[in-house]
Amino acid sequence: MTPHRVGWTEDGHARSELYDDVFFSRADGLAETTHVFLNGNRLWEQFAALSANETFVIGELGFGSGLNMLATTKLWGDTAPAGAMLKLVSFEKHLLDAGTMTEMLQPWPHLAALVEPLLNAVAVHSSGDLTVGLGHANDVELTILNGDAGTRMTDMPTPAGAWFLDGFSPAKNPDLWSSELMTDLANQTAPGGTFATYTAAGWVRRNLEAAGFWVEKRPGFGTKREMMVGRLIDQSSRSAEVLP
C-alpha cells in the first residue's frame, strides 16, 4: 500500500501531497459532511424507515480521515431502529496512518468513542482490506477495500442504497470520476439508490447521467455554490423519482 503523505496548511488544514488538495472544508469538515453526504442522501429519513431486520449499505469513493463514515455511524445510532444493520464500504487507494487520522479528527471529540476502534484497527493494519466493527450495539460494519476503485468495484459485497462520492477534486483526481467508474458504480447500486457529492463539475454530471442516474444540483457547502445529488433511474421505465 502506497503511503499517503499529508501536509498541513498555515491555517491548520490537512492537505494531500499526492493530489495537492485539502481533505475537507476549511470552514467545518463535519458540517460539510452533514450537508453534502448525510443530508444529500437524506440518510436520517432512509435510516428511520428501516425495519428491525433490514440491512442498509453505503458505498464511498475515498475514505480519507474516516470522518464521513464516523458521522454516518453517529447518525445511525441516533435514528435507526434496534436490530437493523449498517454496512459501510469504502474504496481507498492510499490509507492514512493512525497518527494522521488522529490529528485530523481531533476537532470532533464527541466522536471519540466511535473513532477509537477505527484507529486501533488502522494502527495494526499492514496491507490488504480492513474490516472494523463500529457503533454501540455492534450494528455497524465498516470495510475498507484497498486499491484502485476502478479495479475493486466488482468486490462490492452488496449493492449500495447510498453513495458518498468524495474523491479529491475531479481536476486533481479525474480517474475517480470517469465514465467507466460511474457505470461500474451504477451497477453496484440498489434500485432507487442515491448518491451525493460536493462537486458540480459538468463532465462529472454527464458521466453520472450516462451511467443511469437522475442528477440534480443543490446549494453547496460554504463557499461552494453548488453540489450534486441523484438517484438511480428505474431502467425499465427510464423515469426518475425526484429526490424530495
CATH class: Alpha Beta
Fourth CATH level, the homologous superfamily? Vaccinia Virus protein VP39
Oligomer type:
single chain
Average per-residue pLDDT, rounded, comes to 91
Q: Order of strands side by side in the largest beta sheet?
A: 6-7-5-4-8-9-11-10
Whole-number tally of structural domains: 1
Number of helices: 8
Please sum up the structure shown.
With 244 residues, this protein is of the alpha/beta class. The chain is built from 8 helices and 11 strands.
Structural description of this entry:
The chain has 244 residues and is α/β, with parallel strands linked by helices. It has one domain: Vaccinia Virus protein VP39 (Rossmann fold). It is 30% helix and 26% strand. The strands form 2 sheets. The chain has an 8-stranded mixed beta sheet, with helices on both faces. Helix 3 (67-79) links the parallel strand 4 and strand 5. Helix 1 (29-38) crosses helix 3 (67-79), helix 4 runs antiparallel to helix 5 (112-123) and helix 7 packs parallel to helix 8. 42% of the residues are buried.
Topology:
Layout: E1 6-8, E2 14-16, E3 21-22, H1 29-38, H2 43-48, E4 55-61, H3 67-79, E5 85-92, H4 98-105, H5 112-123, E6 130-134, E7 140-146, H6 149-152, E8 160-165, H7 179-187, E9 189-197, H8 202-211, E10 213-219, E11 226-232
Parallel strand pairs: 4-5, 4-8, 5-7, 8-9
Antiparallel strand pairs: 1-2, 2-3, 6-7, 9-11, 10-11
Helix pairs in contact: 1-3, 4-5, 7-8
